[in-house]
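FIELD: query
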Amino acid sequence: MIPVNTLNDRAVALFGLGGSGLATARALMAGGARVTAWDDSPASVGKAAAEGIPTGDLNTADWSSFAALVLAPGVPLTNPEPHWTVRRAQATGVEVIGDIELFVRERRRIGQPAPMAAITGTNGKSTTTALLAHLMREGGRDAQIGGNFGPAILGLEPPAPGRVYVVECSSYQIDLAPSLDPTVGILLNLSPDHLDRHGTMEHYAEIKERLVAGVGAGGTAVIGVDDAWCRAIAERVEAAGTRVVRISVLGPLDDGIHLDGTDLAVMERGRRTFTLPLSGIGSLRGAHNAQNAAAAFAAAHALGLAPETIAAGMRSFPGLAHRMEQVRTLGSVLFVNDSKATNADAAERALVSFEDIFWIAGGKPKEGGIVPLKPLFPRVRKAYLIGVAAPDFAATLGEAVPHEICGTLDVAVERAARDAAASGLTHPVVLLSPACASFDQFRNFELRGDAFRTLVEGLQLPPK
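FIELD: result
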């Protein structure tokens, strides 16, 4: 735990008692703050009280006594309208902040040389965060990983020499961290997302920009430049005097890191200084993972790791569960768990990464279904359809792709494994990339992926 001493002996309102809220309350109390915690869920309030966290109805509290409102990132700050606690805080001049901001202030107060790498973007944040932490650990550093991915940030170990923080930051968390000042800031990409909470794409992009614009003196901003929003941000951040490392998987760069075939090319003033082959690293398959790898390489290098050390760490990266996770190879058949692909855009990344695919798809459908994936249908040998979406997906596949409606995941795995093994293909792939939410049959995509993994691990080679 990181005790928050910056609010010692101050009254603090805390709203939102999920996992990060409970960790924040404990950290505030450990630092001597007088906490009043609340939530719209009576069950959450009861759980906090049972753990010894002081609770109180913030509707009837004296807001003039509070030094700050610490808001959970899932609670609306601005759109579609500010939460009632935010209105109360604003009406009495109480600042509204989140747990990332508390960490930033505490790190600054302690003054220990503990670098912080902060990662954001619309897609790829979690993989890049996990990969960078893996690289730092492989390089002998004590990498503390948390934030939007992993443990709540205030549940990590306190700053200390030799320790580095690798922190995934959502737009909600950035919005609640006005003095965010990472040593290395990573902005991967931007596309429309969470506009119900941010109102417009311009506001969403402005919030994301704060992370790289706030990079501390002598630090580095790593920015993907494959979309217009990020290209403009890179120009502004560089013009403000921050060192910027650009990354691209769509075209060459004279300075930065770009994808050249299946290699990452590290460029300085038009000269290639290092080449990192990605072929053969199954956990980093696909252009989207090449972007993640380029960002992690740039950040790890900025944090002091040698290119050769980074390259070795890339090769040993196991990948993240449910994100193109290579579960096992049985005979010649590779089984891949991409349960995180809950829409067509996410499934596209998996489909472009393989050929000779025996595709398990379906669940609770998203708008548009799999129509956007039609250009990739030639890669699919056969589809095995599950869940509510199965009839609609079957209609979309039509005569273009052989398919069968399996209904449930266990049936789909058994039939896909059988057909892939009998195909005679050199590298057949049974791919769970549903392009659907899981909620018709599973509570979340993790449970769906876990079920796939269990089914695959129970398979045996057919008798010869």
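FIELD: remark
The longest strand covers residues 271-277.
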